[in-house]
Amino acid sequence: MLMMELRQCFGEFGLTRNAQDRILALFRARGYPDLPVSSKTLMGTCRSVAHLLKKCTNGKLHYFGIAEGVRQTVTNEYLSRCSVINLDFAFDGLSPYGSVKTKVWPILCRLSATDFSHESSPFVVCVFSGTDNPEPSEFLEDFVSEAKVLQSSGLKINGIRYEVHIQKFVADYPARCRMKCVNGEGPASLVQCERCTIIGKNVDNITHFSSTEVRMSNPTLRTDLTFRQRAQPEYHTHHKKGPRPDSPFLALDLHMLYAFPIDPMHLLYLGIMRRYWEYLISVKKGKYHLTPAKTEEISEFMNNELRHQFPSDFSRRLRGLAEYKSYKATEWRRFLLYDGMLVLRKFLPRPCYKNFLLLSCAVRILSAVDLFQQEGLRSDANVMLQAFVADSQVKFGKNFLTIKMHSLVHLAKDAEMHGVLDSFSAFPFESYLGRINAAMRGHGRCIEQIVGRIREGYLLQPVPVRMRSTERPQPVLSEEVTSGDTQDKREYLQMRLPDVEISAGKMRDSIVMTQSGEVLRVSAIIHDTVQGKIYIVGYKFKHSGDFFRTPIRSSAIGIRKVWGYDSSTERQWHIEEIRCKCVLLQYNSEPKEWLCLPFLQQHC
Questions:
Q1: In a domain? residue 249
Q2: How far apart are alpha carbons 159 and 165 in whole angstroms?
Q3: Which of 9, 361, 421, 462: disulfide with 72, CB 3.0–4.6 Å?
Q4: Which residues share a beta bridge with 447?
């Protein structure tokens, strides 16, 4: 039992070999002589994995396989609910140790969760390591062979054969282009768009896609057929080497456009949001340039005024925009969907703020399940994205419209195909890529370390899928208040739901919105033990209105300004009347007014 627990502990926390050996020595010296001296013996580490590796042009490769990982991931409950096994894949390049000389490319897989009915962790299907990026034909050879069999014959589990569908491949733009064997971003190529045949123009070594100066004034949309037929030869031709080889993916039953969605994480948050802020700061001749003093003022406002108002559900503390170069994707997403609406209203000129709202409102509609389900709002989001791209050319110039900006005009269509943005973003795979990076310790022998850790069976292993309940989850109550109340009604200060925590003792964690749109501050949580019901006690804000009216009335997407409340007029609401938790940010002190933004739970 102790050996098993130590194996799990060493694997879970990724301790170094020296640390593991030291812990074993301490246990052996204190009455556990049966424990092995070396952690390699305890973990069952292979002496060598060299015989498992396949040599490639630029490095080495090991193929673990799809089927075995799926079998370890699915559960009986999952199989009872799903007659078809839908899979998502991801591939990306890593540079371990910050080295540019070593490239590590894993292929990851997880059960597709477009409807958020379950939570599935990724597992490794294949891994490559070498001095350069892998050749697609070698990297994908084993993968394509197995995927073809799964698509045609399905997968047998517990004596039952299940259909297997490949839903999508998630990757950033350069990785998608490399594996599809088409032109990517760069001054040498003027044909870069994955969705249409637009031809860009190269100015100052930057290829831009200005709506007024493109060579083709009326580009056509690509289709699966035109891609396979190479209807636009320039898109499939290297500027020096000539025609590119066919992508190995062509052998699979895939839509060669929409099976490779535009990843919102890299496009929106690490791409456009970062570039947007760089333009405001760096382009000194720009009309809307922010001086260092103004940038510092914005950062002080965020650090001193907003940080303590943000709910504790957000995994990262608020940081000022002076630190934008080290911002993670989750921080850019938070800024775009939450505090950016207040910060930029306060510090940017009105025309520039309206430009930002076009993007922010569109992304919120495409991110919130309840908003996305409304066809009219989805159409509005598409119009807003088109307007944002056109208006950005006016505000920031033609060179701002790189392929990332142009790709925005196609994002709403990808959402139509796959669902809300988070259902086809790289976020679920990013933390797993971090674990792969952490598994590589000493310099060199990257693939040997990854294969060794996976074969040990305690790190990077497939994790069984966790199904979400089809019923409303039962809250977990804590911090009971001792008072003179009877035993049939117990008062609590905290309530934990699967995605959020509501705390009556903290202003930032006590704001909720009802199904009818009322904004409440929670002062207590009551559990009626006789009826088995839970009630929220609090008071509502008396007044609410639109925080902005263009490009859409803010109340239409759940965003309101609220003011005027009386803490002496408490009442109670049944928990089923509560729709969601909210972010409440004060933007006026006299009179007191707040910006109220409904939570998008999956963004915390």
A1: no
A2: 19
A3: 462
A4: none
CATH number at residue 519: 2.30.30
374, 397, 424, 169: which is closest to 282 by C-alpha?
397
Between the alpha carbon of residue 424 and those of residues 44, 85, 379, the distances in Å are 37, 17, 19
Query: Is 195 within the bounds of a domain?
Result: no
Q: Are residues 498 and 373 in the same domain?
A: no
**Residue 441's pLDDT is what?**
74
504 in the Ramachandran plot: left (φ > 0), alpha (ψ -120 to 50) or beta?
Answer: alpha
In a shared domain, residues 404 and 549: no
Report the pLDDT value the prediction gives residue 226, as an integer from 0 to 100.
Answer: 97
Answer with the residue of higher pLDDT: 187 or 106: 106
- Check residue 602 and give its pLDDT: 47
Contact between residue 357 and residue 337 where contact means Cβ atoms under 8 Å apart: no
Helices and strands of the chain, counted as H and E runs: 21, 24
Do residues 10 and 22 lie in contact, with contact meaning Cβ atoms separated by under 8 Å? no
Ranges 60-74, 183-197, 479-493, 586-600: which has the least confidence? 479-493
Q: Are residues 417 and 482 in the same domain?
A: no
Cis peptide leading into 349, omega within 30 of 0?
Answer: no
Check whether residue 275 and residue 402 sit in a common domain. Answer: yes
Average pLDDT, the chain: 89
Q: Is 374 contained in some domain? A: yes
581 touches 519 (CB < 8 A)? no
Q: Indicate whether 589 belongs to any domain.
A: yes
Bond preceding residue 591 cis, omega within 30 of 0: yes
Last residue of a domain, one of 423, 447, 466: 423
Residue 350 CB-density burial (10 A; 0-12 exposed, 13-18 middle, 19+ buried):
exposed
* pLDDT tens digits, 131-184: 999 999 999 999 999 999 999 999 999 999 999 999 999 999 999 999 999 998
- Tell me the C-alpha to C-alpha distance, in Å, between residue 570 and each of 281, 523, 533, 562: 47, 8, 19, 17
pLDDT 10s digits, 236-267:
998 788 999 999 999 999 999 999 999 999 99
Single pTM value for the model: 0.92
Burial class (CB in 10 A: 0-12, 13-18, 19+), 602: middle
Residues 272 and 395 in one domain: yes
Cα pseudo-dihedral 127, 130, 133, 139, rounded to 10: -40
Q: How many CB atoms lie within 10 A of CB 8?
A: 12
Q: Say yes or no: 285 and 410 in one domain.
A: yes
The range of the structural domain enclosing residue 595 comes to 476-603
Q: Look at the chain and report how many structural domains it folds into.
A: 3
Least confident among 110-119, 196-205, 314-323, 488-497: 110-119
